[in-house]
Write a structure and sequence with these properties.
Largest sheet: 7 strands, mixed
Number of helices: 13
Number of domains: 2
Protein name: DUF2252 domain-containing protein
Helix content: 40-55%
Organism: Mucilaginibacter xinganensis
Pfam families: DUF2252 (PF10009)
Shape: globular
InterPro entries: DUF2252
Order of helices and strands: HHHHEEEEHHHHEEEHEEEHEEHHHE
């Protein structure tokens, strides 16, 4: 077994054994999917680098890559394009976030067979726009009214999505009742005792929490599979039915919260969060312009979870569909850079984060830009080599373990 596989198995040893096998399988798809599933390795390696440029402390989402920006419906009912994954969020050097994203450009573009020259130009564009946004010192946001080009088209399409669309994909009719589908490869049956306990817990949340939807009753629950890095964590999907509007349903996602995988490598003092779920939600509120609908936290069997609505409008830009459209790629990367810097500015000065003036000064100093670009390019090459080793180990059966499609863990 290679060192890479040893590190992976050590990190994933506390995940659900029957689900982590699906994570290992998903990571064989390509180098970019492998990169998405190995956030902890990225920061373990980065923390060991002696010549990486210094940068101010800011709040970061932690696992920043091209597929962790997307559309969502906020509490104000508008659709936004923004950072959308905060599981790994933490107070850390601001360039750690930029490095994770820029490296993802090199890896994703190579996976999509986009010319290396374009990858280099897009990486440079991200760094340039990121720095320029910091220098302006003013956070920006993107919604259908302010979006440009393909991002505007993307958000306009998302805003037109209907709840019936997602219900059609996620549910079936059984004996004239709507239930969550088990034919969907991302949804799994839960053993009855756990299922009933979960449904009772969410019903209690509905009745007691000010963050919950009003006048709904829980009708069904399944185990949910989503993402790459988080596969193996406990995650459930609930079907809620309105008690006062006929044939109105709501889907709620409940995801286990674990400590940030960056925590062992960050020296900055962190706030004493009540729970990991509270950390995730607090940082999300700080970094996003407006946060997602029904965002809430809960404790189930003494474990923290983040709750939020599963939306038909939530989606990410499909780069494989625009791989030959240079202007569209340019617009998306430019927007992602502006949003990354904006999130750091928006949370500036909070609990040890650099102030806006400090971030402006840092953005004005171009000395770090070439060093960042060089590190990301070299690390992208390392990821491709690590992926080949991982694929070899996987094919040799290093990660083999029997799996089940019935969730019994509580």
């Amino acid at each position: 077994m290679s060192t890479i596989s040893e590190r992976l198995k050590l990190f994933n040893q506390h995940l659900l054994p029957d689900m982590v096998q699906l994570k290992y399988e998903a990571m064989t798809d390509n180098a970019f999917r492998y990169y998405r599933g190995t956030c902890h390795l990225f920061y373990e390696d980065l923390a060991a680098v002696k010549k990486f440029p210094d940068s101010p402390l800011t709040w970061i989402c932690g696992d920043m890559h091209l597929e962790n920006y997307g559309s969502y419906k906020a509490d104000n009912k508008l659709v936004y394009f923004d950072l959308n994954d905060f599981d790994e969020s933490i107070l850390a050097p601001c360039l750690w976030e930029a490095a994770r994203l820029v490296t993802s450009i090199f890896i994703a573009f190579d996976t999509l067979d986009i010319e290396p020259e374009k990858a280099d130009k897009m990486a440079r564009l991200f760094i340039k726009t990121y720095a320029a946004t910091l220098v302006r010192g003013k956070a920006t946001s993107i919604d259908p009214r302010t979006a440009k080009g393909i991002v505007c088209d993307f958000l306009s399409s998302a805003a037109g999505s209907k709840y019936t669309d997602i219900l059609k994909k996620r549910t079936d009719k059984k004996k004239n009742k709507v239930v969550l589908s088990l034919s969907d490869e991302r949804q799994f049956k839960i053993k009855k005792p756990l299922r009933l306990a979960l449904m009772g817990h969410i019903q209690q949340w509905i009745e007691q929490s000010s963050d919950s939807p009003y006048n709904y009753k829980v009708k069904d629950a399944v185990f949910r599979l989503a993402g790459t890095g988080s596969i193996g964590q406990k995650r459930y999907l609930f079907l809620l039915k309105s008690t006062n509007t006929r044939n109105k349903y709501l889907l709620v996602d409940m995801k286990q919260s674990r400590p940030s995988s960056l925590a062992p490598y960050v020296t900055a003092t962190q706030p004493a969060w009540p729970s990991e779920a509270e950390r995730i939600i607090a940082v999300q509120h700080r970094m996003q312009n407006v946060s997602a609908s029904l965002l809430s936290s809960t404790l189930f069997h003494d474990e923290p979870y983040v709750l939020q609505e599963l939306q038909p409008v939530k989606d990410t830009i499909k780069f494989k569909l625009i791989r030959d459209q240079y202007r569209d790629i340019y617009q998306v990367i430019d927007d992602m850079a502006a949003l990354t810097a904006s999130a750091q500015l928006r949370s500036g000065g909070m609990n040890g984060s650099a102030t806006i003036d400090e971030l402006i000064a840092f953005g004005s100093n171009a000395n770090w830009q070439q060093a960042l670009l060089g590190y990301c390019f070299k690390y992208g090459m390392k990821i491709k080599a690590d992926y080949r080793q991982y694929l070899s180990d996987y094919n040799d059966g290093v990660f083999n373990q029997s799996s089940s499609q019935v969730i019994t863990n509580d």
